[in-house]
Amino acid sequence: MKKLSLATKILRNWIAYKTNLMTPVPIGYVILGITFQCNAKCSMCNIHKFHKSKAVKDELLVDQLFDKFKESSILRRISMVDITGGEPFLKEGCKTLISELFSLPNIELVSINTNGFLSDRIEDAVTDIIGKLPKGKKFVLSVSIDGVGQLHDEIRGINGAFRSVEKTILKLKTIRERFPRFAIRSNAVIQKKNINHLEEIKKFWVANGISGTFSVIQQPFYTHSRSSIYNDMRRFDKTEIDIIKEIGPKSTGMNYYLTHNFVRPLHCFAGYTSVFIDPFGTVYPCNFLCENPEYIMGSLRHYSIDEVWTSTQAQHIRGKVKRCPFTNCWNGCEVDQTMIQFYPLNRIVKILTLGYHDFYKLKGLKGFD
Question: pLDDT by residue (tens digit) across 261-276?
Answer without folding.
Answer: 888 888 889 999 889 9
